[in-house]
Amino acid sequence: MKKLLSLLLLAALPALAQVTIGEPWVRATVAQQKATGAFMTLTSTQGARLLSASSPAAGAVEVHEMKMVDDVMRMRQIPGLDLPAGQTVALKPGGFHIMLLDLKQPLKEGDSVPLTLEIEDAQHARSQIVVDAPVKPLNAAAKH
Amino acid sequence: MQRRLFITSLAALPLAANAAPAFTGIDITGSTIGPDYKLSYSDGKPASLRDFKGKYVLLFFGFTQCPDVCPTALARAVEIKRLLGADGDKMQVVFVTVDPERDTGPLLTEYMRAFDPAFVAVRGTLEQTAKAAADFKIFYRKVPSGSSYTMDHTALTYVFDAGGKIRLALKHEQTAQQCAADLRQLMHPKKETGFLKGLFQ
């Protein structure tokens, strides 16, 4: 009976995870600077995964993780970022970020950058979220 | 009564001890780091640490394509300078690029101006950069990433005093308030009181 109930519940769930994006922003750049980072929070109703991102403002977009090991900063591309059900995952300085590479033009404060996030849920169903991330000044400090 | 007085003064000791110099950063006074580099300012003129004699230099190695640590460290330096108030003018920030291939002079000039026009950036050839990093015990490495590359690098900020002597290494995790307190203590060292001196001798 219990098993049947959970099966029924599963069937009743929407096919796609609902992912809410909070406080998106992109760090401004200066002339000739070809890369910058995008930051935001992601909260998914169900277990899901951020697979990749793209933007018309950048030639390439990667999901990165920053780690400090013995005072050495290491930044690496990651194959995806898990979004556990109901948990808010923060992309912020000192952790994860979306890296915008090969920028088409400098990003000025007041601009906004369209980002398309590719999300995959536990059933491997994919969906896309479009985010308009405002550009904050280059010297925007990280919240400690 | 006398006994009670003794206990009271004992209780006051830990407080007094806390007032004695203690940095949040790592005290590396006397270490063999540096002592100088042979690099160029972003306008091409030769650069040396000696150019800032009389100033408290914050020296940091990084690269401008860095989305996270480098702008955070520079934004922290802006905040440290603000927190120091009038003493902020005695502070000089020097940014050494570990990515001279992409960090051209004009790019570095623009980048520093976005933080504080008084901050300077220095760069060199690949060989000069490698020599400076080795002399200052900075690790850095080019790492391929997708179609491009990123740089691993030591994220410590070195502090030199007005005499050009190495004093501190500030960790990336230190807040602007902690860094400003460390600098204030370097600029205005507290004298040990006779009472404390007598106790510890």
Give the topology, please:
The complex is a heterodimer of chains A (about 140) and B (about 200).
Chain A lengths: L1 H11 L6 E9 L8 E9 L3 E7 L3 E12 L2 E6 L3 E3 L4 E4 L4 E8 L8 E10 L4 E11 L8
Parallel strand pairs in A: 1-10
Antiparallel strand pairs in A: 1-2, 2-7, 2-8, 3-6, 3-9, 4-5, 4-8, 9-10
Chain B lengths: L1 H18 L6 E2 L11 E3 L4 E2 L8 E7 L6 H15 L7 E7 L7 H9 L6 E4 L2 H10 L4 E6 L2 E7 L2 E4 L5 E5 L5 H12 L6 H7 L1
Parallel strand pairs in B: 4-5, 5-6
Antiparallel strand pairs in B: 1-10, 2-3, 2-6, 4-9, 7-8, 9-10
Helix pairs in contact in B: 2-5
Strand and helix order of chain B: HEEEEHEHEHEEEEHH
Q: Low-confidence parts of chain A lasting 5 or more residues at pLDDT below 50? A: none
State the share of residues found in helices of chain A, binned by percent.
under 10%
User: In sequence order, what are the helices and strands of chain A, one letter per element?
Assistant: HEEEEEEEEEE
In total, how many beta strands of chain A? 10
Can you give the mean pLDDT of chain B?
A: 88
Describe the largest sheet of chain B: 8 strands, mixed
Shape descriptor of chain A reads globular
CATH top level of chain A is Mainly Beta
- The CATH architecture assignment of chain B turns out to be 3-Layer(aba) Sandwich
**What does the average pLDDT of chain A come to?**
89
Proportion of beta-strand residues of chain B: 15-25%
Biggest sheet strand order of chain B reads 1-10-9-4-5-6-2-3
Number of domains of chain A: 1
Low-confidence stretches of chain B: 5-18
Task: Calculate Rg of chain A over CA atoms.
Answer: 17 Å
- Which percent range describes the beta-strand content of chain A? over 45%
- Globular, elongated, flat, extended or rod-shaped: what is the shape of chain B? globular
> What is the domain total for the residues of chain B?
1
Class by SSE composition of chain B:
alpha+beta
CATH fold field value of chain A: Immunoglobulin-like
